[in-house]
Amino acid sequence: MDRFDAMQVFLAVVDAGSLSAGSRKLNAPLPSVSRKVAELERHLGTRLLVRTSRNVQLTDAGRDYVDAARQIIAQIENAELRASGEYETPRGVLTITVPIAFGHDHVLPLTYDFLCEHPEITLNVLSVDRVVNLVEEHVDVGVRLGELADSSFYAVKVGDFGFVTCASPAYLARKGRPSSPEHLVDHDGVVFGEITEPGWIYRQKDRRLEGKPTIRVSANTVTATVTAAARGVGIIRAPLYQVARELQSGALVTLFDAYESQSFPVHLVYARQGLLPLKVRVFIDWMAPRLRRRLQELAAFRPAGEQAQG
After folding, report:
1. How much is the pLDDT for 151?
2. CA separation for the pair 168, 154 (Å, rounded)
3. Looking at the structure, do residues 271 and 283 belong to the same domain, yes or no?
């Protein structure tokens, strides 16, 4: 039995939640995965997993073994990185995950500049609008929008973002400019994702207001909603970074700035098991100040003369 291979298979099953899910993750036959786990248990002389029809659960011995196995694998990976020189020169494959819209418009352009300065680093990008488990999916650095739900990762805060409500000049010429969120009831709206209740929630000091436009377009991509708003279909409420280009060009103008006070953090997150590869440390040190500056530029941007009068 290859104990190191069996250890990796066992951890894949634990992380995936079942033998079948582990076999899919490893792209290996289910009988082979099940056999390797059983051989590991026989070698150790104890049961590591309690198998059910749908999932697996760790025994007490299994929980102890998981922690030890992760440390062993991390030590081996660190040894391989040291041998390959990744702790001496920034090199190797850097895997990052970014939210689709924010990543494509604001993170990746900076990342490509980083690559030009570090020719021995190769980039692997995972663009998804979901929370990625960095350890399970072997991701070096993630960009997270909003409050962090998992405190087990290291995080570097690079700034904040807020929401804006905006419409095209053509729409406002046709339908009139609402003077407060409550007047959205007489207007058309464009939303990202499914239509949900309640409407858009605003705050001004201690006042809480709800705006409920008539939804004309709901779409599952940001591009579709921004395009609809810019074409005059309706009013959109979105993170500022999603509509920055349209605001800068004048295709959209902001409404209700006095009511948009809430902000959400942006972090670079990474898992640290053993020594941090130089490629990761260099990327974070390079990216953090540049992304922070980009977010500050976005936060400071407001088209002159377009603010709602509160």
Report:
1. 67
2. 41
3. yes
